[in-house]
Amino acid sequence: MPDTSGRIPLQILVFSAVTCLLFVFIIFGFPIQNALVLFLAGIVFVIAFVNTNLALIIVILSMLLSPELRAGKAATRSVNIRIEDLFVFIIFFGWMAKMAVKKELGLFRKNPLNVPILTYFTICLISTLVALMGGSILLKDSFFYLLKYFEYYLIYFMVGNNLRSVRQAKVFVYVMMATAFVVCIIAWTQIPSGQRLTAPFEIEGGEPNTFAGYLNLMMAMILALSIYAKDKKLRFMWWAFFGFAVIPFVLTLSREGWISFIPMICAFILLNRKARLPLIIVAVLAVVLLPSVMPRKVFERAENTFAPERSYRFFGKKVYVSESTSERIDAWQKALRKMRNKPLIGYGVPGGSVIDNQYTRVMIETGLVGFASFMWLIILLFRFALRTYRESEDDFLKAVSLGFLCGFTALLFQSLGAAVFILIRIMEPFWFLAALVIALPDVVEEEKALANAGVPQAA
Length: 459
Fold this sequence. Notes:
Blueprint: H1 10-27, H2 32-50, H3 52-65, E1 68-74, E2 77-82, H4 83-101, H5 114-134, H6 139-162, H7 166-190, H8 208-227, H9 232-250, H10 255-271, H11 276-293, H12 296-304, E3 310-314, E4 317-321, H13 323-339, H14 358-391, H15 395-414, H16 424-452
Antiparallel strand pairs: 1-2, 3-4
Helix pairs in contact: 1-2, 2-3, 2-4, 3-4, 3-7, 4-6, 5-6, 5-14, 6-16, 7-9, 7-16, 8-9, 8-10, 8-15, 8-16, 10-11, 10-15, 13-14, 14-15, 14-16, 15-16
């Protein structure tokens, strides 16, 4: 109903103030790029205050489709931020302002991962503070890394506490799939360049391994949605989308991505009887047919893994591998050597920034205490997602939880060759999906209780 009290709505006041501020910055010569970012930030704040669902959709769209901005220099590396990094924090403050004004929205939903997330992040803070006091790391480096960690968990917290209906979750998932489709279209346009494919809108050449991890997660979701599609046409559409995504995935030339794709498919075969036989048949056909259609550079990339640059003894035989492969093999030895000096809380974030292995990186940064808390978080998340999949009766919920579990499996294996759980292009959609999977069972129960009570369900 319209407001007849004569008061100007808060969102109009905020919008007007931000617009005026934009013109002031332009008049006084403030860089137009920064002024526009500020203007967009004001609009997003208003949207978050008025409609948090719409704000979260903006976050989904911006995860892979927002440009980078140069934020300066930290140590020897450039610091880049993305538009969605700003949006996440702005939306959080807009949502909190909405909660403060509209107290009838209720308390935060209980969540089984709140304690392990808080524990791990607290250990990261403590180890980093100790390292900063000892002068072994720089404040600039630590600040931006910790801010990223906090951003991921902020997404998880916001999504889990804003989810009110299965319909709302469907909108989020389908927008995420639409974003992945657009990203794949952009990736296809990169193919004629002959370069390794990367995610769009990256400043310095992109990160093909990161893009491969993102596509692994999205392909797992696509495959799960195809398994639980209600009609053949929809199932065919999802399979066509899967095939459309496979080509850019292969052309990332990411060996870690390729290898982690195998356990992802194995997870589908083990967890889902319904698709077990078709997936086995497709996997066999792929092994037989793909060698005859793949570009030569794919084979060269795979063969380069065993380039005669370093050698190891394996069951009494000498095995040659490339320098980059050997670095990943040696990561565990490097971690163990470094941990001898600081075994409990490590060297602080990002003390292990040169290690291309998530597990050894966590060990170096936060020691055995941090590694134990990180694994506690990972195991709990996997366990609750598995419980959601096994106990749910709703096809959509089973599809989302199955896709998340299998994508999660792929990322756990890819983490052996890359620090996956700090990569923003992967972690933002990952934690968004994690929030859906963990919160949806409670949402389904709440909807059932409301339906039994005769209360209209939320849109």
